[in-house]
Design goal:
Layout (H helix, E strand, L loop, with lengths): L6 E4 L13 E7 L2 H9 L4 E5 L12 H6 L5 E4 L9 H7 L2 E4 L1 H4 L9 H8 L16 E5 L7 E4 L13 E7 L17 E5 L12 H7 L3 E5 L9 H7 L2 E4 L1 H5 L8 H11 L2
Parallel strand pairs: 1-2, 2-3, 3-4, 7-8, 8-9, 9-10
Antiparallel strand pairs: 4-5, 6-7, 10-11
């Protein structure tokens, strides 16, 4: 095995570059389909992601079957063992929770340290090809005269200046990349919703809420078992609020509310 095969980390699979091609990636992203697609598109040899609390319909580990279809080895670390959105922390103290068949064939198994699993993944054959087309979506969820529009974004990485004053419902986890302010929330929006990714170690899955409060943005998370992580429409249709920042609470929203009700509260508070 070549010494050139390295184990590299990244806070998110949205942050990959040419240097990740052909290497083993510890990506801080949740283990849903879109991060898996990005990893495959970047040409990684194998990838380890966060299980994000597994959540509704197993969305937090959906990457495993997706990548098995490409014969690309993949695993997830337990959200209770290491911080989501922090590849360095996952490599340092992550514990493997699930592996796909391609990774199991290389000796990877639940209960291993992330570092041990990653070392085994260096033996994977390089993957080449184009993954099945996948495009994240942003779409209008609600528009009422005189009220803020509500937009769905499957990833916070899709947020832009055009979202100023809107209510944004994302499929993303509520963690800060690397546990530090990261500038991903743009606009700024009036309010934002994320997935709590099972909350996880050191409550990392909801760490973005306090920062957004300081920015003047009302924010909340939906429980991972109530909505599929990575899917804004799922958050809108079935998500139930699990945590809120002070500005969101001031609107009258509460834990257990559905996301459409949260949007109504935010709009009412502006009148």
């Amino acid at each position: 095995m070549s010494d050139e095969i390295r184990i590299l980390t990244a806070p998110s699979t949205t942050k990959l570059a040419d240097r990740h091609r052909g290497q083993v990636l510890i990506g801080g992203s949740h283990g849903g389909v879109y991060p898996a697609y990005l990893a495959a598109r970047a040409g990684v040899r194998a990838v380890i992601l966060s299980d994000a609390g597994i959540g509704k319909d197993g969305a937090g580990i959906a990457s495993l079957d997706y990548l098995d279809a490409l014969n690309l080895p993949a695993a997830t670390v337990s959200h209770a063992s290491a911080r989501i959105a922090d590849g360095d922390d996952q490599l340092a103290r992550g514990v493997i929770s699930h592996v796909n068949q391609a990774a199991a064939a290389l000796g990877c198994a639940a209960g291993q340290s992330c570092a041990a699993c990653a070392a085994l993944l260096r033996a994977a054959k390089p993957w080449r090809g184009e993954p099945p087309a996948y495009r994240e979506a942003r779409f209008l969820l609600r528009a009422a005269p005189g009220e803020a529009e509500v937009w769905g974004l499957d990833s916070v990485a899709l947020m832009g200046r055009e979202d100023k004053g809107r209510i944004v419902v994302t499929g993303s986890h509520g963690a800060l990349l690397g546990g530090r302010p990261d500038g991903l929330v743009m606009g700024p929006p009036l309010a934002a919703v994320f997935n709590d990714a099972g909350v996880g170690i050191e409550r990392i899955g909801i760490s973005r809420l306090a920062v957004l409060n300081e920015m003047g943005i009302a924010a909340a998370t939906v429980a991972a078992d109530s909505a599929r992580i990575g899917e804004a429409r799922s958050a809108w249709e079935t998500g139930r609020l699990s945590y809120l920042n002070a500005l969101a609470e001031a609107s009258g929203a509460a834990v257990g509310d559905r996301v459409p009700a949260f949007a109504e509260r935010i709009c009412a508070a502006q009148k």
